[in-house]
Amino acid sequence: MTITTTQSEMKLKRIFIQPQIPQELAALNRMSHNILWSWIAQVSELFSSIDPQLFTELNYNPVALLENLPPARLNELAGDKDFLKRLASAEEAFDAYLAEPMKKDLPRIAYFSMEYGLHISLKLYSGGLGVLAGDYLKEASDSNVDLFGVGLLYRYGYFNQGLSMNGDQLHHYPAQKFTQLPVEPVRRDDGNWLKVSVGIKGRMVQAKVWSLAIGRIKLYLLDTDHEDNAPEDRALTHQLYGGDNEHRLKQEILLGIGGVRAIEEMGLNPDIYHLNEGHAGFLSLERLKNYVAAGLSFPEAREMVRASSLYTTHTPVPAGHDHFPEHLMRDYLYNYATDLAIEWPEFMALGRLDPDDHGEDFNMSKLSIRLSQRVNGVSKLHGKVSQEMFTELFPGYTAEEVHIGYVTNSVHYPTWIANSMHELFSTTFGKDWVRDQSNKDIWRKVHKIDDKALFDTRHVLKVRLLNYVREKLKVDMRRRGESPRTTFDILSKINEKALVLGFARRFATYKRATLLFNNRDRLRELVNRKDQPVIFLFAGKAHPADHGGQDLIRQIVQISKEPEFAGKIIFLEDYNMEMAKLLTQGVDIWLNTPTRPLEASGTSGMKAAMNGSVNFSVLDGWWAEGYRPDAGWALPLERTYDDQHLQNELDAETMYSILEEEIIPLYFDRDESGISKGWMGYVKQIIAEVAPYFTMKRMMDDYFERFYLPLGQSARTVRQDNQKKAKAYAAWKEATAAGWSELETIENNTLDTVNYALPVGENFSAEVVIATNGIDPDHLVLEALFYQRMDEETIKLRRTQAFERVASTNGTATFRLSVDPHLAGVYEYGFRMRPVHDMMPHPQDLNLVYWV
Ligand SMILES: *Cc1c(COP(=O)(O)O)cnc(C)c1O
């Protein structure tokens, strides 16, 4: 139905009527404006208790709740002694948290991300990347760490998912009301709203800066959707991951360049810039520009930027690495070449593999690697995969030598733990144990918890989940227009005695959401066993442009309506953080079936693990580190087939077998008290042995130890004495690079390996004389490398041994080696010279090699 005004246009103006909260309840208002409320259980329970139904309807948003409560209800609460008592106690916990001081003498970190998953009521996230960033900021607050976030404030964010009767994904974009978010304008000293301007194709776009309180720290968000801007620029902060490639480019310019400008305006002076994914890569361009404007040369500026930047790469899937064609780069960023005092091709080369390949797109990952001293992947395995993926940027080195490290992702315990589980843990683990949450010894006390108590607590969580499923299906199916009979049929089959398995995540095709359906006959048999009911719950959104992912959703929705699968295979629409909590807390088994090795980490399984939901997953990403045979089930890491179809078939058959032969029988093997002791063993082991490692505190500690502290040190070093060392280092790099092509081998007296087989135990010897020309021999290292050939393309480095420099006279240096390689068999070897300098954090910091 549409309403048309037949006479004149309606003439309306906007007014914001601020709700009047009684004085007694002022603390509610205050607490609702710091997202901390969401992870202090006492506070979130207090909000929910005011009106559980309204709270749920309002997306668990306490600001909206207070705005929507009738004045009579507010007054009633203001006179409710019991409520006021609970309020005072919650406020005390809240204030005690905020009163704690930040840690001193640690580097200050600026964390940039395109998305943040903080809470369902803040539409700033799409999936795992965002949830990780949100969890990380919460932990920074919990750990009193001096870190702040930078991102975009989206009007519509990522879409809400609907489904048609047919299973087609529908995309809804309800607008966020900023007055109902815990955000506040950042103001200049003169009281005016802080705005930063960013040039977008000749127009100056004004971005308002908002701040969002996350416990003790802040997230700063840029917003272009206001009257100062032209309509197309206002749209810049409308959607997350919406629009075309050009739109993405503009958003990334806004995030990176606008973000750095906002930081400067606020005078925040971070020591380290952490790029959460390549989306943020342009921040380094703006920083370079500022250094050049302050009088540094481009190479000097680059040293300053590199020495204070960490880039975290999040996926081996190529589509996850943004790249832009040259003409777009020219349209939007041409001025940067001028500002950086470099030629345009040199500018483009920052984002290219081959500087001379003028057809190559500008790639954000390559840019980020070139302008960050440190790089990491997000699990041990993903670290390796990333080394391989980016080896081509470092010719002369094999993958295992590439300086890319890793920090395995994790999850924020207070956000993801069920309250009832937390209470059960806390009575056994002791007071304040959460501060030491990555300590396994504490978690091992779970074995002291009575099996029945743990089983019952988990059962209540399962019942809560299934009630939610029933309610949700009732509403969603009616809206879709399903017949009441189909709905009734499905609802009536949902059985609380069932073994419940969950699979929920983005429906990217590599995650193989439909693997389970590979063999319908076998699946039908599996879910229709007498006395052993099984339910599979599915949820997840596919990107609006990902038609492959949407196909998978359609398939599952259609299967879920077939009589033999009704009530046993269920698809829940609109996956979000609240649903993720219910699912990971309530299911018995959390499933994940990615195509190896494409799951960089995955985090939902960790949420499940800490709640005692046992994982069954491909040994990829985090599970390759977390899996133990007594704490879950796994599909093997190695691929058997190159053909993905055959591999899918094998994986599906393996999955059915493990379910049929191990998981289902164990779950239903009940003793006289009605529980399965064997099952509880798995539950306890995944809590005791797996969960502690995947807590955010461990991840934060790892980032400090592996990256922030060393970077903080190098950032300090390059700043000292007016950037003296940065300048010297840049000059040395320039000179070394210029002289590198002059290196020449004058003599090479190596053991004759063509005619002589070296017996085991005997030394391999070589003496080499190099014309070093202008390069100081103290800055040269010569190494012998022994490789093993795996196949035509791959060699593995087995041993590295440095030569000793035995003489250097005007312009030549003599190197000698005599070493027992401690190897047997056929190897390939080479002598590789590389530059060294005490400012060098790793060999690839100056990317030059010379083969003798
Ligand atoms: C945790 C979470 C994810 C990430 O799940 P993966 O296992 O990493 O794929 C995605 N979406 C939501 C809503 C989440 O809560």
From TrEMBL:
The keyword Glycosyltransferase applies. InterPro entries: Agluc_phsphrylas (IPR011834), Glyco_trans_35 (IPR000811), Glycogen/Maltodextrin_Phosph (IPR052182), Glycogen_phosphorylase_DUF3417 (IPR024517), Pyridoxal_P_attach_site (IPR035090). Residues 21-122 form the DUF3417 domain. GO terms for molecular function: glycogen phosphorylase activity; pyridoxal phosphate binding. Keywords: Allosteric enzyme, Carbohydrate metabolism, Glycosyltransferase, Pyridoxal phosphate, Transferase. Its cofactor is pyridoxal 5'-phosphate. It holds the Pfam family Phosphorylase. Phosphorylase is an important allosteric enzyme in carbohydrate metabolism. Enzymes from different sources differ in their regulatory mechanisms and in their natural substrates. However, all known phosphorylases share catalytic and structural properties. This is glycogen phosphorylase. It comes from Neolewinella xylanilytica. The lineage of its organism: Bacteria, Pseudomonadati, Bacteroidota, Saprospiria, Saprospirales.
